[in-house]
Structures are given as C-alpha cells and as structure tokens.
Amino acid sequence: DGIEDCVVLSNAEGTTQIVSGVSMAGYSACVIVYPSTLTTAQKTALATVIDANLWAGTETIGDQSATVITAGLSLTYYWYYASTTTVRVRLTDVSVADGYEVSDMLDPVTAVMVTAFDALHVGDGIYALQVGAYLTAAAVPGLLNGVLEFSGDAGATWHSSLSVIATVKLVLGTVTVTA
C-alpha cells in the first residue's frame, strides 16, 4: 500500500561491488522504493516485507529505515527512495499523410508517451527504438515519419535514449511535435 514501484538489488559477492550504479557492501541487499511519500505505517509494512523476504543476516543498505520486531528481536531495515528525472520528449521532422496536420499528432503522440512512461520501472531507461514501435498508424493515425528524442536535463541536450542508475525513476515531462 503506497508503493507504486520498487526494485531490489543484491550483492552476492563478499566484497563491496557497484550494482546498477549503487555501491553495495558484500552480501547485502538494496531496496529502492517509489514514491518517497510513505507514512510511518507504510514504512513499517515495507520493513516487515523486507524482513519476510531476506535471508537471515543479510545487510540492507539505504538512507531510510524502519524497525520491526521479529521473534522478539528488534530488527532495522534500510532502503532508498528513488529520485525522479523528468524527461522532455520531442518528435521532430514529422511527416504526415494527406489530410492530416502536424498539429493533429500531439495528442496521440502524448498518449503513446504516457503509456510508455507508465510502463517504466525504477531503474529503467527509455529508448527511441523501443517507444517508436508504439507510434503505429493505429495509435497515431496519419503519422508517417519523425525523429524521436528525449532530454532528461534542464539544458538542450537531446538523445535517442536515456539510461539511468537503479535509484532513478523517469517521469514524463512535456511532449512536443514539430515538422
């Protein structure tokens, strides 16, 4: 309850390792949760789920914690909240079929992007080839061609894909469509 997305990383090695961009102590687990608005009761419930699913003695890492009582023992479990990166999307160099205008493309392209971003999990990147496959004639009537790009920063850097570390959740920002 309250958790929209979660990823669990593990380091099965006896030494510190970088796993999906996260530094992890040997034989540890890292739980990354989205969103960061959990109540105290939800935090305790999360710690209870972590307790029930980890091997005994597995260290958890993170900057958030909750304590549960299990078999008379007070056990504290740690996790991270995922940060978000807002991604701007643009479809440029658009060509459309006869009877359509480029301006007709914004709403259906935005709907496709909402679906694509809703399917992303914490730590997932986004790729033009993958998302472009959803820009079909059925989903976006009249669209013939275009260049799909993403920008995950406040600047003007655009990419055909965005990769992230395991502690980041990509969220949809503005969508633009231009000829």
Secondary-structure blueprint of this entry?
Elements: E1 5-11, E2 17-19, E3 22-24, E4 28-34, H1 40-53, E5 59-61, E6 64-70, E7 73-81, E8 83-96, H2 106-118, E9 126-127, H3 128-132, E10 143-151, E11 161-162, E12 168-177
Parallel strand pairs: 4-5, 4-7, 8-12
Antiparallel strand pairs: 1-4, 2-3, 6-7, 8-10, 9-11
This entry's quaternary arrangement is: single chain
Number of helices: 3
Rg calculated over all Cα atoms:
21 Å
Structural class: alpha/beta
Query: What's the mean pLDDT score?
Result: 93
Number of strands: 12
Shape: elongated
Strand count, sense and barrel status of the largest sheet are: 5 strands, mixed
* Distance, first to last CA: 44 Å
Which segments are poorly predicted (pLDDT under 50) over 5 or more consecutive residues?
Answer: none
In terms of DSSP E residues, the strand content is 35-45%
Q: Report the order of strands and helices.
A: EEEEHEEEEHEHEEE
Q: What percent of the residues sit in helical stretches (DSSP H or I)?
A: 10-25%
Description of the structure:
It is a single chain. It is built from three helices and twelve strands. With 179 residues, the protein is of the alpha/beta class. Strands 1, 4, 5, 6 and 7 form a five-stranded mixed β-sheet that branches. Strand 2 (17-19) and strand 3 (22-24) form a beta hairpin. It is elongated.
